[in-house]
Amino acid sequence: MTDVSTLIKGAKELGYEMGQNEINQFIAYKELLKEWNQRINITSITDDVEIDIKHFIDSITPIKTNLIDDGMRIIDIGTGGGFPGIPLKIMKKDLEVVLLDSTMKRISFLNEVIKSLGLSNITAIHGRAEDLGRDNNYREKFDIAISRAVASLNTLSEYCLPYVKVGGYFIAMKGSDIEEEIKEAKNGIKTLGGEIKDVKTFKLPLSDINHSLIIIEKIKETPTKYPRGGGKPKKKPL
Ligand code: SAM
């Protein structure tokens, strides 16, 4: 029997009382995650409690920023097994969610999750962040871009900020040791039209893990030369 009792408890600590529908969806998601993980590499975290804390609970913490409102369009860059995009969608059904990843196998997994859980208004797209960020169907079309465990903040800002509308936000989900990363990324963030608004550091419920949310507001349009191609955001960060 798949257990999500830690998730239910942790969500309560964050202030969310989960309904039966959400609980069933997280159970189905966890079952698919474990099943697919035997065939393709999705996550190294396979223990029930650890999945609840490190994937599910961690993924829903950005709701606490109060920036994610019903009806918003949100893109999860380098979503992998769907984190944080799928848990956010389960908790906030009115969001329009795009999940982006450069690994096709993970996109196939996500499509299976979307179908099995009966989620609507959510799509999984195969591509590289720095390519789609130049495509006018995606560029500056999102209220929020969010990303966890994909790249250092300077590289990640070039991946994510081009997707955000002026007035929207890029939320970088990070660990606790972020001062140096922020220092290195400051110039690039400014060049890309962003400004750091807030950094929220908090302890994940039912654990002693400290995580941070770096909140970057898009204050002006990203110059058209960004994101750069040819792997430059990673090889030569701004
Ligand atoms: N966000 C998920 C999480 O927190 O569990 C997955 C993290 S995993 C360590 C990094 C993911 O980012 C991988 O699935 C990888 O395929 C994807 N990725 C890395 N670089 C990317 C790029 N330039 N564009 C799109 N996806 C990328």
CATH architecture: 3-Layer(aba) Sandwich
Low-confidence stretches: none
Q: Hetero groups bound?
A: S-adenosylmethionine
Q: Per CATH, what is the topology?
A: Rossmann fold
Number of strands: 7
Outline type: globular
Can you tell me the CATH superfamily? Vaccinia Virus protein VP39
Word description of this protein:
There is one protein chain. With about 240 residues, the protein is an alpha/beta fold. It has a single domain, classed as Rossmann fold. The chain is built from nine helices and seven strands; from the N terminus they run αααβαβαβαβαβαββα. It has a seven-stranded mixed beta sheet with strand order 3-2-1-4-5-7-6, sandwiched between helices. Helix 1 packs parallel to helix 3, helix 2 runs antiparallel to helix 5 and helix 7 packs parallel to helix 8. The mean pLDDT is about 95. The site of S-adenosylmethionine has 17 residues, from strand 2 and helix 6.
What order do the helices and strands come in, and which of them pair?
Layout: H1 5-14, H2 20-37, H3 48-60, E1 73-77, H4 85-91, E2 96-101, H5 104-117, E3 122-126, H6 129-132, E4 142-148, H7 153-160, E5 164-174, H8 179-191, E6 194-203, E7 210-218, H9 232-235
Parallel strand pairs: 1-2, 1-4, 2-3, 4-5
Antiparallel strand pairs: 5-7, 6-7
Bound molecules: S-adenosylmethionine.
Features of this protein?
alpha/beta, seven-stranded mixed β-sheet, 38% helix, binds S-adenosylmethionine
Short description:
By secondary structure, the chain is of the alpha/beta class. The protein has one domain: Vaccinia Virus protein VP39 (Rossmann fold), CATH 3.40.50. It is built from nine helices and seven strands.
